[in-house]
Amino acid sequence: MTCDLTLRDVRSVARIVNLAHRFNCRITHVQAAVGELETSARFAFDGPPVALTRLRAQIDRIIAYESVA
Amino acid sequence: MNGAQAVVAALAREGVETIFGYPGGAIMPLYDALFEHPVRHVLVRHEAAAAFAASGYARTSGRVGVCCATSGPGATNLVTGLLDAMMDSVPVVAITGQVRSELMGTDGFQEADVCAITQPITKRNMIVANANDIARTIAEAFALARRGRPGPVLIDIPNDVLKAAVKDVTDPPVKPFAREGAGPRASDAAVSDAVARIRSARRPVAIIGGGVRAGSVDLYRMFTAMLGLPHAATINALGAAAPGDPSYLGMLGMHGLKAANKAVQRADLIVALGMRFDDRVTGKPDRFAREATVIHADIDATEFNKIIGADVSLHGDLRDTLRALIDELAQGHVPRFDDWAAEARLLGGPLPSDRVDGKVLSATDVLDRVFAALPPDAIVTTDVGQHQMWSAQRARPADPRKYATSAGLGAMGFGFPAAIGAQFAHPATPVFAVVGDGGFQMCLPELATLRRYNVPVKIVLIDNQNLGMVRQWQELFFSERYSATNLADNPDFAAIARAYGIDAYVLDSPAGADDVIARFVNSRGPALLHCACHPTENVWPMIPAGMTVDDLMEARA
User: Fold this and answer.
1) pTM reported for the whole predicted model
2) Which among B182, B216, B374, B491 is least surrounded, fewest beta carbons within 10 Å?
3) What is the ipTM of this complex?
4) Of B22, B45, B24, nearest in space to B416 by CA
């Protein structure tokens, strides 16, 4: 699973890495470019489909909360 | 004005009247700013209680609860309460002091990286590095705590920032994306699809969850009433059903009522509203409501298909969604499900119990009597364990905001401080905390908080001299190997309460129970009712973890 994300908080990169580890997903790629207001990040993960689905949902929640503040 | 004064001014702008906390070195400037300020600070006796009290305040009022603590151990003691708020979607703002900026990263005295610690258990946390950012940060924190799916936000402020000079900001420049705005709204197509499925259903059941607390009770009652729809509630939605509603089947889940669980299992359509299919509700997901299609409404899109697949997803505020469903239904045929509701009611029966001979006090008998004696407007909080489930089976709160319990996290030590928070939010409303002997001992020092502020919380202590729920599982699933659950050496709780200046009533036999309960309920000021109950009474019915209603147990094998 590959995710191209725009994050308001660069700390979310670490949070996503931790979540992948928690769900026993293998992180095959992390790349982040930090801008003045946003961070562009690309992640690639391997893992069981259920775990990847759960990881994607948690990433979506992080982004949803970031969109508020 | 310094940073600490800017914090208090910002809290006042948010309408905060009460905050719960405990002072310490790094946060001392804030306490200095609070001295003689109209924002009332309530001194608890452990920071964990501050977070739980803020949660009780928020759960019962709908306003944001606020707690504060110093750096290091003060901040880490808030952690359980913040996670509890996250799990149950409760708007809480926590303010923590931090060591001076130049000490951060030096393993300074009482230094903890509380933002890293709380990142997974808050919607957001922020370190304020510049005192001029305080007003904006606090405004954003409150907006975020309230908006969408509510939850906790933590603001960490270094000691030097609290002391730094700041210009008086009366209209903080909140970034546009932090302002209250239109949230997601279920599409017309999805609403039409949902209504079509309701019209064609034969055995629909609605399940209401904690999302109903966000101002949706009236519309939920209208929705179920217009259809005669049988409906069940998760523990966070107790009180959503109109009093006396014949279509209401009770709480759902592991210790839920038989009618609710069986009706869901027989349903051909589940209308899940503001609930998240917790494992304590579904049991084994692939055997949950096997014959049903699912309409799932939630403000949090990540809940869709997380546990139970949704055939129709209604993403939006539950109030808007219910209004749309009602309007769409009203434009055409409005089906009635009274016959199915009557059939569903018959799937249940009286609550099974373990009551023993009449000489020993039964916890379920006591709770039946207590709930019968409560004023109709009473607010009830509970702790976690057997008494929590017995209460949830019996309580008939008038509104979901009249009932607060640590549902998702199941945090022992919650019930009593949450009641303190609820009482500060509702000074004129009777507030009762139902607790067990295990959880009560996690927060005994809060008796001092009751006494100091003369908070008239009434504590119903169900003392079975055991960590009863764990003991029950050991009996049923661990070959009666009672490891570390016996509390036969409990202290004299009444004497402890009296030592703090709290009135105590003792109930140790069924004889005269109603009279003692009546005197306790009608007493003035804070009071404890110590109920010395049978040690091995179990909670029934029970669906063992990971199983279904087909495996429901109603008594010991």
Assistant:
1) 0.96
2) B182
3) 0.93
4) B45
